[in-house]
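User: My notes are a mess, but here's the protein and pyridoxal-5'-phosphate's SMILES. Can you give me a structure?
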Amino acid sequence: MSFPPPTTLDTSNRSRILNLGAGPSSLPTSVLLQSAQDLLDYKGTGIGLCELSHRSGTFKQILDSAESDLRSLLSIPEDYAVLFTQGGGTEQFSATALNLLAYDAARHGRAPGTLDYAVTGSWSSKAIKEGERMGGRVKAVTDSKKRDGKFGRIAPIEEWELSPASECAMLYYCDNETVDGVEFPSPGLPIHQLPDDYRKNVPIVADCSSNILSRPIDVAAHSLIFFGAQKNVGPPGVTILIARKSLLARHPDESIPFGGPRIPTTLVYKNLADNSSLYNTPPMFSIHVSGLVFRHLIEQGGVKGAEQRSSEKAQLVYSTIDESKGFYEGTTSATSRSRMNVTFRIKGGDDGLEGKFVEFCKERGIEQVKGHRSVGGIRASLYNAISVDDAKRLVEAMREFCGQHSG
Ligand SMILES: Cc1ncc(COP(=O)(O)O)c(C=O)c1O
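Assistant: No problem, the inputs look usable. Here's the predicted complex:
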């Protein structure tokens, strides 16, 4: 089979379409064009990016520069490692539990402690189930669904039922719940409100898969931050970890005599760190494109710039919901509204009308606004590659649709 060689890359349909998908989602066109060139011939070497050796100096430069740009974007302190791995956020549900159980048992020389989870949406709900499957003793310190019958409001920390600090192996939370449109209000989980002994002794782990790089995060207050790339960062395939180096000091096998878990080799954080993310072949293309996205974001004013644009975009859409006199109804409480994934219902959850809205958007080139299959409704994702003008385009469609169907 032979393919005719394309002479140019056609981007015209990209400007017509506004992709508001929840992930994988939009990436900057300039980044994709550069990636396409690099896939074919990386910097005039005559070798495509995915044809290079992952142990070559050329790929090492790609890895180093992605790391260094991410460090500068998030002000990552020196005593934190940046690790590139695979398996997505879902694999981290297992890896976080296993590594933190082992760390806790080896550090204290006793059986692993409890895994505390803040269950604020569908993803943290999956994480706690996986923690339990991995053999952990788990505790939901808060569970919005048990309390309210649905995910939509994050309870204040003073209502959380935390395990005693001396018996606790980690506190896990999801900063932005992509399915349910629930996010910890800025600046993020108020870690300073945790009791002193808990804050100082319990490793805090954050899933930032769907809001990383949209606002600053206090890295030094966490032991581990992880995120899959396919929303604000890059293509699917790479998962990035920011890990406190003290967490990587001991091999988890040291915990086995105390009842710690046996961890598959590629999930052992220490192995990733000791081999500079090259224990085995890394997802080279995804890492490279993520690096280009980091560069692009630096040129666009860094995380501060993204934060400003995110607030503006979210404000535009939420105010359209609030001003619609109940035609549109947000699914989350005002204090827990996600800036990344705006979820709402139409006329109290009229499936037929919601279907019409999805079609109405499609006719205007606005794609992927159908809510997650598990919750229904509408979801518009406003990740970093979505501009303020794009959000205005959505708002215009929402107003027009409301004008036609309210009353
Ligand atoms: C917040 C969050 N965590 C975890 C995941 C799971 O990611 P993956 O599909 O890469 O395993 C997702 C996926 O959308 C997510 O949004």
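Residues 88-108 form the longest helix (21 residues).
User: Great, I'll file this with my notes.
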